[in-house]
Specification:
There is one protein chain. The protein is α+β, with helices and mostly antiparallel strands. 62% of the residues lie in helices and 15% in strands. It has a two-stranded antiparallel sheet with strand order 1-2. Strand 1 and strand 2 form a beta hairpin. It is elongated. The N and C termini lie far apart (52 Å).
Length: 132
């Protein structure tokens, strides 16, 4: 059996998403007599699950902080009602977009798409940084 090292590194600087999973496994593509998937497939599924968990945690953290921000904006006295409504509408749109992305991450089945979606948490939702 040949051994191969498969490394996936996803680091999004400054935002708490750092996933470094280094896997060493045998490249045996045959299944066992019981019909279970190859070892490689099982390890890739575990890696996908860890990526999904990290991505979902980051989205949940952002949604919670945006909800707190809406509460703080509504308590502000030196901002007009129109501005409060505008900020709140923009924040609610961002929350809806993050919720949609969370569902997409949960349904991803391949590693390449999952990595792109996790990176989209930061790259596609920069408005979060502006609000915070």
């Amino acid at each position: 059996m040949k051994k191969a090292k498969l490394s996936f590194v996803l680091a999004i600087v400054g935002l708490g998403i750092v996933v470094n999973a280094s896997l060493t496994f045998a490249q045996n593509m045959s299944t066992s007599s019981a019909g279970s998937p190859p070892v490689r497939a099982n390890q890739q599924f575990q890696l996908i699950d860890r990526f999904k968990e990290k991505g979902e945690k980051e989205i949940d953290r952002r949604i919670a902080s945006l909800n707190n921000l809406v509460s703080r904006i509504n308590e502000m006295k030196k901002i007009s009602a129109v501005d409060k409504q505008s900020f709140t509408a923009q924040i609610q749109t961002e929350i809806a977009n993050l919720t949609t992305l969370r569902g997409k991450i949960a349904s991803d089945t391949d590693l390449q798409t999952l990595r792109a979606d996790i990176q989209a948490i930061v790259k596609g939702h920069r408005i979060y940084l502006l609000f915070m």
